[in-house]
C-alpha cells in the first residue's frame, strides 16, 4: 500500500507482469496487473467475449474454458497462472471452420434458451465427453452440475450431450 496524500487514503500497489498466453492456438503477449483473472484477460484484453461473466465467484460456470484440455472457471483463475498453457475458449472449438459437434447438438436439441450460459455449458460438455463421464443421463447431470441455466434447458442439454456420444463424436477433443 502507498499513501495518497491528496485524499488521506492508501492506494494498493499495482504490479504489472508480462504474460504470454496461447489462446485458441494463437500466442499473445499481455502486460497485465498480476491480479487480472483469465476471464478479464480474455474479455477485456483479447476481445474474446464469448466467455461470459456470470457470478464472478465460481458458482455459475458461465466462464468455463479449457486450460490444457481441462475445464476451469476462468473467473477464479489468474491469467498469469496460464502462462505456457493452452487456453481454449468457445471461439476456439470449431473444427476446420465448422461448428463443434457439441455446438451442433445444442442447436439441434434446443440446448439453450436465452443463450447466456451456453458457452460455459458447451465447454463443460466437451470436457465431460473427453473425460468419458457421459455414460448415463445421471452422470451427465452430475458432471454438468457446476453450470447453471436460469432458463432450465437442462433436459435438452442432456439430450444434446447424449446425442454427441451416441453418434461416435465422443472423441470431442479440440
UniProtKB/TrEMBL annotation:
Q: Which residues form the 2Fe-2S ferredoxin-type domain?
A: 17-93
Q: Which PROSITE patterns match?
A: 2FE2S_FER_1 (PS00197), 2FE2S_FER_2 (PS51085)
Q: Which controlled-vocabulary keywords does the entry list?
A: Iron, Metal-binding, Oxidoreductase
Q: Does the keyword Chaperone apply?
A: no
- The protein here is known as (2Fe-2S)-binding protein
InterPro entries, per this entry?
A: 2Fe-2S-bd (IPR002888), 2Fe-2S-bd_dom_sf (IPR036884), 2Fe-2S_ferredoxin-like_sf (IPR036010), 2Fe-2S_ferredoxin-type (IPR001041), 2Fe2S_fd_BS (IPR006058), Aldehyde_Oxdr_Iron-Sulfur (IPR052914), Beta-grasp_dom_sf (IPR012675)
Which PANTHER family does this UniProt record tie to the protein? Answer: OXIDOREDUCTASE WITH IRON-SULFUR SUBUNIT, OXIDOREDUCTASE, IRON-SULPHUR BINDING SUBUNIT-RELATED-RELATED
The beginning of the lineage is:
Bacteria, Bacillati, Actinomycetota, Actinomycetes, Kitasatosporales
Instruction: Decide whether keyword Oxidoreductase is in the record.
Output: yes
Q: Which CDD domains match?
A: fer2
